[in-house]
Specification:
The chain is of the alpha/beta class and 258 residues long. The protein contains 10 helices and 7 strands. It has helices spanning 17-28, 40-47, 63-73, 100-128, 149-168, 188-191, 197-200, 209-221, 231-242, 245-256, and strands at 9-12, 33-37, 54-57, 82-85, 131-136, 174-179, 226-227. Helix 3 (63-73) runs parallel beside helix 4.
């Protein structure tokens, strides 16, 4: 990853999973990076490995944490060239049985925080004529997902928003990309109450955090609109475009009950 073009970066959700791996790859490439998450201890442990790393403890489910992060993104004294909106979580289960407060928090983080930070990034980058925005979405964004209804809906928003921003930024010098990974082994499964997925799906269905992070960083550098790691998921996204929505919903419902 030594050829990454970013002069500096900021990664949310950097304490674990895809976010932490992106930070490691940025650090290995010598890119100074701001690490954003709630768990300061994990951020400090990662930051200690690289020169130029900065820790920003912020809870992006709270307005104060979002405002603090947006302020850092828009700093003129210490400009951020790449913003990775990675923070997010999901909730697995039948919609009517889930905690509505948790679902509200999921929407706040996956949608509201990402929107505010995307706005801050583009507002700062466009006058400079250079910048990169990578919003982490999911292959779940391409179809309704029974059993992950709110998560898939939030990610559909992320993908749609990012595609629109990509077009708005065309010719401005700012690259905007949606990263849409499939099944990836991280702490996400534990936090979304979906750890049983590991037993339900075979090994070939899983991508690694290393591959997902590398593909996302490479694709935003080359200004791809949508980045889908892994040939399996590239094929699934393609077929989702030509599969009738009613059939797609039905398949999703059957899979969720297996």
């Amino acid at each position: 990853m030594a050829d990454l073009p970013f002069a500096s970066a900021l990664v949310t959700g950097a304490s674990s999973g895809i976010g932490a791996e992106m930070a490691r790859q940025l650090g290995d490439a010598g890119v100074p990076t701001v690490l954003v998450a709630r768990r300061r201890d994990r951020l400090e442990e990662l930051a200690a490995r690289y020169d130029g790393f900065e820790v920003l403890e912020a809870d992006l489910t709270e307005p104060e944490g979002v405002a603090l992060t947006a302020e850092r993104i828009m700093s003129d004294d210490r400009p951020v060239e790449l913003v990775v909106n990675n923070a997010g979580f999901g909730t697995s289960g039948m919609f009517h049985e889930l905690d509505p407060e948790r679902l509200a928090g999921e929407i706040d983080l996956n949608v509201r925080a990402l929107t505010v930070l995307s706005h801050a990034a583009l507002k700062a980058m466009r006058p400079r004529g250079v910048g990169y925005l990578l919003n982490v979405s999911s292959v779940a964004s391409f179809q309704a997902s029974a059993g992950l209804a709110v998560y898939a809906a939030t990610k559909a928003y992320v993908t749609s928003l990012t595609e629109a921003l990509h077009e708005e930024a065309r010719g401005s010098g700012v690259n905007v990309t949606a990263l849409c990974p499939g099944l990836t082994k991280t702490e996400f499964q534990d936090h979304s109450n979906s750890s049983e997925l590991e037993a339900r799906f075979p090994g070939f269905a899983w991508t690694t955090v290393e591959q997902v992070a590398a593909d996302g960083l490479r694709d935003v550098a080359s200004n791809k609109t949508i980045s889908v790691p892994g040939n399996l998921y590239k094929g699934l996204v393609f077929t989702s475009d030509i599969t009738p929505r009613a059939l797609s919903r039905r398949i999703s419902g059957i899979v969720s009950r297996q």
